[in-house]
Amino acid sequence: MIDKYTWYEKVGIYLGIFVFLSFVLSPFVEGFLVSLKPMHQLFSSPYSFWPKEGSFDAYFRIWETVPFLWLYILNGIFIAVVATFLGLCMIIPAAYALARIEFRGRGATLSGFLMVNMFSGAVLLIPLYRLMRETGLLNTYFAMIVPGTAFILGTGIWLLRAYMLRIPKELEEAAFADGASRFYTFRRVVLPLAMPGILIAGINCFLTVYAQQFIYALTFNSKSEYMPLSVGLFAFFGRQEVTWNELMAASIVGITPVMIVFFFLQKYLVAGLTAGAVKS
Fold this sequence. Notes:
Layout: H1 7-36, H2 39-42, H3 57-65, H4 69-100, H5 106-116, H6 125-135, H7 142-150, H8 153-164, H9 169-177, H10 182-211, H11 214-220, H12 229-232, H13 244-273
Helix pairs in contact: 1-13, 3-13, 4-7, 4-8, 4-10, 5-8, 8-10, 9-10, 10-13
């Protein structure tokens, strides 16, 4: 195949990718380098980007500074996993119904799910707080799980519906011709074929819930034993100073589970985001 790009077009493409990645990754690189620096070097003048006396001491001190740091990390993972599971229990049948069943108002329903993503969680904090108080969910895990689950339904349904539309209808029609019910066909034919799409939706839901726990935890929870890491990081803010190197070290440790999930499953996530973009 003849290469359709000239050498200077390739240089422009790679240069653009390099500039883009520099803007995206520079905060993470700087955060990691800050975690390696001693406190006296953080405010030196002129500022040194590369640590002159770098070490991993901050990664060991964070467990002494905040003894419950491990609990905050586990809380964040637990909330994200439970919210993802509950969300998938609603996303899977809803996506199948919107992909296969013709009913009045289907387009309006899809638009309604899409409109949910247009509202920030901060806009609904007051009504959500009153709802949590009336139902007795304040200061519990469910105070963060319930809104986290609600706000992932729209994106999850759209992602999984696009994948289910790619499953040939003829397979279901063959099962119907053999006398199989709708539920049996969904369970034995559609679900096995849709597992890659379900995995995609699950990854997206997990990443979304894990990244958006702060505002719900800070508003609906006041007990440290239920706090996720995003709120637990406040423990590094002292009255006199902020231990920035330990704060950055704890942040790096906190985002490690998400980085691991994304690293191993990124190809499925990319495939899901492009599902339905090209008509087969």
